[in-house]
Amino acid sequence: MSFKKKALSGIFWSSIQTFGTQCVSFVISIILARLLLPEEFGLIAMITVFMGIGNTLLNAGLGESLIRTKDPTEEDYSTVFFFNLIGSVIVYAIIYFSAPWIANFYKQPLLIDIVRWYSIVIVINAFSMIQVTRLTKQVDFKTQMKVSLPATILAGILGVFLASEGFGVWSLVYMAIFRSVLDMLFLFYNTKWLPSLVFHVEKFKYHFSFGYKLTFSGLLDIVFNNAYHVIIGKYYQPAILGFYDRANKLKNLPVQTLTTVISRVTYPIFAEFKDDNIRLKNAYQKVIQMLVFIIAPLLLILSVLAEPLFSFLFTDKWLAAVPYFQIICWSGILYPVYAFNLNILKIKGRTDLFLKLEIIKKVLFTSVLLFSVKFGIFGLLYGGVCFSLLAFYVNTYYTGKFINYKPFEQIIDIVPIVFLAFISAVTVYFSDILLVSYFSKDILRLLVGSLVGAFTFLALSYLLKIKPFFVLSQILKNNDSSNQTVSPPDR
Hints:
- With 491 residues, the chain is mainly alpha-helical.
- The protein contains 22 helices and no strands.
- Helices cover 82% and strands 0% of the residues.
């Protein structure tokens, strides 16, 4: 299969899998948000950092090492499998015995049992990590879709049923465990892969030497990305954390989903021409512009329509999350940019620099956090936006050196897109003010505002000849037969 067909096939099935799973999860979360209280979601959010640490230690970056390794053997896969399995049991034991300390830190005794039950998914996930890695390396996202989508639907049905029966926060716990079990069973059934009884020390050293730096980077990332959850959970009521967590997840739905889809497909493919810097730069430039072209207008328009959006989806009891959402949407715009810049370091095998940048960012983050925390929760949120700007520069520094795609050049590529997205959001704001004077229904405000924003953004993009607009037009028209690039019209 050619590079182009392989990439398009991977993007198609990865999109079906990721967007399908996320859409189902989103619908389920809407139903659960109507059945459960914000503080019950806040309790689960309190343990997010510990689950993240556990899953990061479980992977240890070895999965990504397998993906970038040319023609890994059965010994490679089996060695990593048994390391993950043994490691998951050790991590679970640590979390299990740390549960009283975690509960005491948040002053929530119920967290003892929640932590001990919820963290079982770490061990369950260890059984299926290699299967996912093998499928990803093969760019086989069709099989992954056949696994994740049914598992999400069935687990969601269980969660909704338990919530309607009054299980409260435990409906979220049991849903997560059931989802992991289904993922594991479906993966074993669809891949037919079982590990061989072998553990090769040299193979382990090879993959660990690449992966351990990513693990430390991942741990730093998990701890600092969830610092807001820890601080808000420690010093505010669980309901406040529930509001923040709901706003953050709604922001992450389009941002991380789209970035994950493209990243999962491009990482193994781009790794094939990791030594061709010109080709690598051209590919990343197009990907980054396209991601910002989709994400920037979506986030800014949704931030303007946040009030009817939260009211319509989650009911009025979640309206306190609206200002949180409106602020953090700005930090989401740059996420795909610095995420893809870090991918270049991984493709180049420079996990040492990856770790170095993570340490630098965490020092900056701590400084911003210590300064902004004294201004309350809104100070924390605005501090997060400021940090996203700092992280952008840090992450793009080495990209400029490796593939000659300097930070300023990346800014030039995305600023016009963000500016048009801002103009579109302003247009939506004034049209919504006019509409609300005649109609108060949330659904009408959402429909009209979305149409106004999308039309404004696309029309301006066409008139000002924004490149991603024409690239996207080509993709939608499926103009593969001519194998030509759609060019902006002449003035």
